[in-house]
């Protein structure tokens, strides 16, 4: 099972994926702390707005960019 970890390319790819997942997981926490720092008592509304904008970007921008990327050589 651990024999695959002897492959340098796979080990580098796995390490990069783990680091990226940690960063992605910490982003909402950082947004929450930033909203609290900037907005004070309205932090819930600011965080909700920021996360809604992020989700709209995922829903509407990602398919368009993905379709465009599929057409590139």
Domain module count: 1
Q: Describe the sheet with the most strands.
A: none
Helix proportion range: over 70%
Q: Unreliable segments (pLDDT under 50, ≥5 consecutive)?
A: none
Averaging pLDDT over every residue, what do you get? Answer: 89
Number of helices: 2
Strand pairing plus helix content: what structural class? mainly alpha
Element-level helix/strand string: HH
**How many strand units?**
0
**Through-space gap between termini:** 37 Å
Estimated share of beta-strand residues: under 5%
Overall form:
flat
Please tell me how large the radius of gyration is. Answer: 18 Å
Write a brief structural summary.
By secondary structure, the protein is an all-alpha fold. Helices cover 84% and strands 0% of the residues.
């Amino acid at each position: 099972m651990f024999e695959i970890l002897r492959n340098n390319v796979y080990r580098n790819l796995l390490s990069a994926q783990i680091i990226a997942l940690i960063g992605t997981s910490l982003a909402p926490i950082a947004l929450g702390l930033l909203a609290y720092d900037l907005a004070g008592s309205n932090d819930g509304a600011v965080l909700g707005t920021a996360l809604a904008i992020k989700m709209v970007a995922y829903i509407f921008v990602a398919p368009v960019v993905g379709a465009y990327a599929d057409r590139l050589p």
